[in-house]
Amino acid sequence: MKTIYNPSKDTWSEILERPTQTFEAIEDTVKNVFKAIKSEGDVAIKKYTKQFDRVELDKLQLTDNEISEAQHLVSEELKEAIQLAKANIEKFHAAQKTDPVQVETTAGVVCWQEKKPIQKVGLYIPGGTAPLFSTILMLAIPANIAGCKEIVLCSPPNTEGKIHPAIVYTGNLCGVTKIFKVGGIQAIAGMTFGTESIPQVYKIFGPGNQFVTVAKQVATQYNVAIDMPAGPSELLVVADDSADAAFVASDLLSQAEHGKDSQVILVTTSKKLATDVAKEIESQLAVLPRRDIAKEAIKNSKLIYVDSDTEALALINEYGPEHFIVCVEDEDFYVSNIENAGSVFIGNYTPESAGDYASGTNHTLPTNGYAKQYSGVHLDSFYKAMTFQKISKSGIQAIGNAIELMAAAEGLEAHKNAVTLRLKSLKNN
Amino acid sequence: MKTIYNPSKDTWSEILERPTQTFEAIEDTVKNVFKAIKSEGDVAIKKYTKQFDRVELDKLQLTDNEISEAQHLVSEELKEAIQLAKANIEKFHAAQKTDPVQVETTAGVVCWQEKKPIQKVGLYIPGGTAPLFSTILMLAIPANIAGCKEIVLCSPPNTEGKIHPAIVYTGNLCGVTKIFKVGGIQAIAGMTFGTESIPQVYKIFGPGNQFVTVAKQVATQYNVAIDMPAGPSELLVVADDSADAAFVASDLLSQAEHGKDSQVILVTTSKKLATDVAKEIESQLAVLPRRDIAKEAIKNSKLIYVDSDTEALALINEYGPEHFIVCVEDEDFYVSNIENAGSVFIGNYTPESAGDYASGTNHTLPTNGYAKQYSGVHLDSFYKAMTFQKISKSGIQAIGNAIELMAAAEGLEAHKNAVTLRLKSLKNN
């Protein structure tokens, strides 16, 4: 892991550059699958499932039998862990509910804002070696609190035509309305267009490999919204001598094991800590099952020493980390002044994995610098904010002239006329 | 205007089809301009301004002198109208502020959500025949309330190198920090990359022609967010015998004058009203200055008679109109049950142009059916929701085991290890 001392500001963007991804090569594949599924529906889905997942399916939707069968395959202790996580995530997301906002802006002019659930949402959950059932908690729980009517879950089947039982258990527990054994591009295309068995949805959430990422981008061309643009996972830790080097190293590695393109960064005002963390990384890395992945990610990663907290903060805000851990004496300085980060973890006993699983916050977060302008998934991700207004006769008399003047100045006479007609009718009465 | 009686549900999607737009032809032009501005900055901006706007500029940013000069060119009565609108828009958007949400999900596990302003935003305001200064109110006012530090406005200059004075006046009034005489693709590219004079921004808002629409799409490939996907403007009115045919026609026409691809729809349970509105449209249309545009839009538009309110509501929710006017006896039925609409206007004295200008609601709304999944611009459009958490020793002891179990079940041992190390250290103490 490269250590950099006091980098000058004009080198920051180079030092903080993220591993880039280009997906152009697979765009054609994705578009072809979309085309086929748009015109052939389930037939095409089954064809691609055979081709990509190497399994022939009769029925795409999980039956009640399959769901209750899966429940028995999850250990009781894992179920309890999932239930604990669910309770915390529910508490935190339910607290994000807001009341309608109503204002009488002028006497007789009443405006209000109400949030209405997105009626149909789709959740994509990757399968394979790491069955990310935790992501179901993060998506289905707020979807349910918001009141989304249709919550569709797609996840790829294994070669026996089954979905990992923990995925099925968690989906069922969190109020998913339909579960489909469909993965990859074909899942995203299926939810975009709808097929004989898969409902069309209005917004698609969830992580995935490069094919899923491109498929979600393509879906947006067909009037579907997506949770946020994708990018490799990343973590930035700011730490000083009050931090524990072993803990910091374990946090950096927990992010590094996600993928070879993950990026982890330590910013520190302590040279001793930088040295200690580097050593700890070496020793902890050696015994990790996913060390080959983590080792590659560590190559993209940096230990950065800076002289002051002010300098550190500026650099961190410039980077806009997805995950930001604060292990310093003066926590308040960073917590109050952080402008760009997805989620912030404060203190020596707040590992990032707490937020990944069970503390209550959402783990679907903006990466790739998107923390500068995107929120992570939160309750509002499952709502649209709609506005309403009702104007009385005296209300339109109070603001009508202003509307007429402005519409005329913009050259929009029909806009003006809609008010003029009403004002005239009131004069005549 | 075509009248349709009791269409059966399987014909709805055809009847409600929106005029389509395809922009592929101009994508190359847009990408070339982006490339040039990325590498040449202001030089390229000036080159394209000369080419597209037919004016050679020395300086792109408006000077204080130019700003104060413009103030004198706006009539006092228009200024007062703009100030009235500003006051209402401020009241409604300020009321949308939310407090941080804090929850102790488990004893010792404190999670909170705080909204932080997007630091740098860009507003694009078209020029030309209809100077849309009202859009500045809709964008700069909430940007200011949210606390965005840099609020950049770009608008194309005329052949004399000037921006319409109402745009300059409104921008200055609403706290825009810098105004640039740059339009079209070059404005969007300039704000995406930043140039010697134009600051790089994180999110771009505002309407525009097809070049601006494609440029905003391209900008998202360079890590910039945009307010929402674009589409032609649209209005749906539901009305019964309690409605005034002349008012309804004036509202339909106010939307129709926006562009030839605008779409307006009347859904009614009264055959008499359908006939009356059709007649009113003919007579009002004849005297409109923008009748050529409105006439084309009316061709895309429909009067739909249905037997019941239930049927009407289902059809409206299927369409998801940008603007939705409710002029019926039983308003409550529609107001309570509308699921998909950008903004709702209730009663005979609530013309859509009130919301376009001065009632207080925002006029930047989801069109093209996007009301199913997107909010219109509102205060939160200028924030990111960030989460924070702080876990105590007893907190991690309470949830640590659940995290370990879940991480292990997902095959992410380094995630587990970050917790295990901490739990062990607490046992040893």
Automatic annotation (TrEMBL), chains A, B:
- Answer yes or no on keyword Amino-acid biosynthesis: yes
Give the cofactor note. Binds 1 zinc ion per subunit.
Q: Which organism is it from?
A: Aquimarina intermedia
What is the name listed in the Swiss-Prot or TrEMBL entry for this protein?
Answer: Histidinol dehydrogenase
Q: Which residues form the signal peptide?
A: none
Q: Using the record for this protein, list the coiled-coil segments as residue ranges, or answer none.
A: 45-95
Q: Which GO terms describe its biological process?
A: L-histidine biosynthetic process
Cofactor(s) this protein cannot do without: Zn(2+)
A GO cellular component entry from the record: cytosol
Tell me which HAMAP family the record gives.
HisD (MF_01024)
Pathway of this protein?
Amino-acid biosynthesis; L-histidine biosynthesis; L-histidine from 5-phospho-alpha-D-ribose 1-diphosphate: step 9/9
* Residue intervals passing through the bilayer: none
EC number from the UniProt entry: 1.1.1.23
Enzyme class, first EC level, given as a word: oxidoreductase
Top-level taxon of origin: Bacteria
Q: Which UniProt keywords apply?
A: Amino-acid biosynthesis, Coiled coil, Histidine biosynthesis, Metal-binding, NAD, Oxidoreductase, Zinc
The UniProt function text for this chain reads: Catalyzes the sequential NAD-dependent oxidations of L-histidinol to L-histidinaldehyde and then to L-histidine.
Q: For this protein, what is any one GO molecular function term?
A: histidinol dehydrogenase activity
Q: Quickly give the catalysed reaction.
A: L-histidinol + 2 NAD(+) + H2O = L-histidine + 2 NADH + 3 H(+)
- InterPro entries on file: Ald_DH/histidinol_DH, Histidinol_DH_CS, Histidinol_DH_monofunct, Hstdl_DH
Ribosomal protein recorded as keyword: no
Q: Which family does it belong to?
A: Belongs to the histidinol dehydrogenase family.
Annotated Zn(2+) binding sites? Q255, H258, D356, H415
Query: Which residues does the Swiss-Prot or TrEMBL record annotate as the active site?
Result: E322 (proton acceptor), H323 (proton acceptor)
**Pfam short name (any one):** Histidinol_dh
Q: Which parts of the sequence bind NAD(+)?
A: Y124, Q186, N209
Positions annotated to bind substrate = S233, Q255, H258, H323, D356, E410, H415
User: Its encoding gene is what?
Assistant: hisD
